[in-house]
Automatic annotation (TrEMBL):
<feature type="active site">
    <location>
        <position position="336"/>
    </location>
</feature>
<keyword id="KW-0961">Cell wall biogenesis/degradation</keyword>
<dbReference type="InterPro" id="IPR036318">
    <property type="entry name" value="FAD-bd_PCMH-like_sf"/>
</dbReference>
<keyword id="KW-0573">Peptidoglycan synthesis</keyword>
<feature type="active site">
    <location>
        <position position="166"/>
    </location>
</feature>
<dbReference type="GO" id="GO:0051301">
    <property type="term" value="P:cell division"/>
</dbReference>
<comment type="pathway">
    <text>Cell wall biogenesis; peptidoglycan biosynthesis.</text>
</comment>
<keyword id="KW-0274">FAD</keyword>
<dbReference type="GO" id="GO:0071949">
    <property type="term" value="F:FAD binding"/>
</dbReference>
<dbReference type="GO" id="GO:0071555">
    <property type="term" value="P:cell wall organization"/>
</dbReference>
<dbReference type="InterPro" id="IPR011601">
    <property type="entry name" value="MurB_C"/>
</dbReference>
<dbReference type="Pfam" id="PF02873">
    <property type="entry name" value="MurB_C"/>
</dbReference>
<keyword id="KW-0132">Cell division</keyword>
<dbReference type="InterPro" id="IPR006094">
    <property type="entry name" value="Oxid_FAD_bind_N"/>
</dbReference>
<keyword id="KW-0963">Cytoplasm</keyword>
<keyword id="KW-0131">Cell cycle</keyword>
<keyword id="KW-0560">Oxidoreductase</keyword>
Length: 340
């Protein structure tokens, strides 16, 4: 198959930030034949390249000088069906939220707390997406990926993915060397909703739901996210722009003494996760506008494109937020999106 590539293509429609940038070449990979052709393409294998899913975790600050490959592979297949669990193989191009809701409709539980997260399934293991007390890595049993240089198909089991907080082997040793083609999940047949996270329990209480189903939890998460986070179709953004920083217990104790209202969570032996949104908000940055970029006025973790912002404007604002938090708390906060 001949690889069909478009040239000098605007990337704003393929990202949730919607900042102006162009790709020298853009390729849509929607089936195995297109994938094989891509792997045979010298310009992709040896030149500048970017594998793009839903574009919800990337900020372009310039034009991309090489090939952008959009992975649009589709399909959901049951691999192993047991009385208590089901293992499903989900193609990388499936929309994450659509898969979560489809799983609930089929009686497959465990991902409901991750409802309404933007992006595709193929991106979920890369940064081990998480929200409201759940991480995708808890349910991922295998990731299928093809090595760009050799065309070799690799199967990473759960241990091989080396999941951490917003982290995995795909962000480290295998960064830019693979195309993820599918993700395998093991989900429950019997409902055991996680409702202990504060926002979820409050939302369920407000709705008068005493014995919530997984669908109730998913609906609650959707309402919470819709209330807090801007719709990228109306206000360009990449969701939470900063990771919650993880610090030592001693550092957390120091900060709590100086800032008694600081929100934090235990994060393993001797470590504490701080709420980056709280740090940004209480540094006086919520709602800050710089040019056409801004810190969202309802959720300080989110940077937004107010309309016509450049990637450079968003990045300059992000750096200002980082420096302000560093100066006030002596804590480093890291961006979540890939910045190009």
């Amino acid at each position: 198959m001949t690889l069909l590539a478009q040239h000098d293509v605007a990337l704003a429609p393929f990202t949730t930030f919607g900042v102006p940038a162009q790709a020298r070449r853009l390729v849509h990979v929607s089936d195995e034949a297109a994938l094989a052709a891509l792997l045979d393409d010298d310009a992709f294998r040896h030149g500048p390249r970017l594998v793009l899913g839903g574009g919800s975790n990337v900020l372009f600050t310039r034009d991309f000088p090489g090939t952008v490959a959009r992975i649009e592979l589709k399909g959901i297949a049951v691999i192993d069906d047991q009385p208590d669990t089901v293992q499903v193989r989900v193609a990388a191009g499936e929309i994450w939220h659509d898969f979560v809701r489809s799983a609930l409709a089929r009686g497959w539980f465990g991902l409901e707390n991750l409802s309404l997260i933007p992006g595709t399934v193929g991106a979920s293991p890369v940064q081990n997406i998480g929200a409201y007390g759940t991480e995708a890595g808890e349910r991922i049993v295998q990731v299928d990926a093809v090595e760009i240089a050799t065309g070799t198909l690799h199967h990473f089991d759960h241990a091989g993915c080396r999941f951490g907080y917003r982290d995995s082997v795909f962000k480290r040793e295998w960064k830019d060397r693979l195309i993820i083609t599918a993700v395998h999940f093991r989900l429950d047949r019997h409902a055991s909703p996680r409702t202990g996270y504060g926002d979820i329990s409050r939302e369920l209480d407000a709705a008068g739901i005493v014995t919530p189903t997984p669908l109730d939890v998913s609906d609650a998460v959707c309402r919470i996210r819709a209330a807090k986070l801007p719709d990228p179709a109306r206000l360009g953004n990449a969701g939470s722009f900063f990771k919650n920083p993880v610090v030592t217990q001693a550092t957390a104790d120091r900060l709590h003494a100086a800032h008694p209202g600081l929100v934090s969570y235990p994060h393993g032996a001797g470590l504490v996760k701080l709420a980056a949104g709280w740090l940004i908000d209480h540094a006086g940055l919520k709602g800050l506008v710089r040019g056409q970029a801004a810190v969202h006025d309802r959720q300080a973790l989110v940077l937004v494109n107010r309309g016509g912002a450049s990637g450079e404007e968003v990045l300059a604002l992000a750096r200002h937020v980082q420096q302000t938090v560093r100066d006030r708390y002596d804590v480093e906060i890291e961006p979540e999106p890939i910045i190009l």
